[in-house]
Amino acid sequence: MFTGDRSGDFLFAALWRAGFSSQPTSTNRNDGLELKDVWISAAVRCAPPANRPSPAERDSCLPWAVRELQLLESASVILALGAFAWDAALRLTPVPVAAPGGRRAPRPRFGHGNEVARGRHQIIGCYHPSQQNTFTGRLTEAMIDDVLARARQLARSSA
Asked: Does residue 15 lie within any of the structural domains?
């Protein structure tokens, strides 16, 4: 996933700068890239039409994502790349206790750098490393470096 496209170029370079990757690029599955303390997954398991996954596709894939997260017993931080991934991460993780008065707690809103605790996981929002976001400066190297540093900090504090 992300291998061989510009989103991946941006993401793998950031993972390498943060110490989560053995090299700054990934061109194919046998290029020697090794991730360290990172697992990359997707909310949708197949390539959707026009690369635009639907909520129905996300919900159909949810049981696989839940099981995958269960198997990653030491995972404590989820970095959601984009609002779609943020929503999927919220669906994967336990809902917090209701707010005072029995009302349901408000749904956490996506934003770059936003954080929310959900069960044993911390979720951090990050703008998706799409060309639309990186070419326009909506997501810069410094911004993704900051959220990766925060992810590492949270993971260390939960260990």
From this structure: no
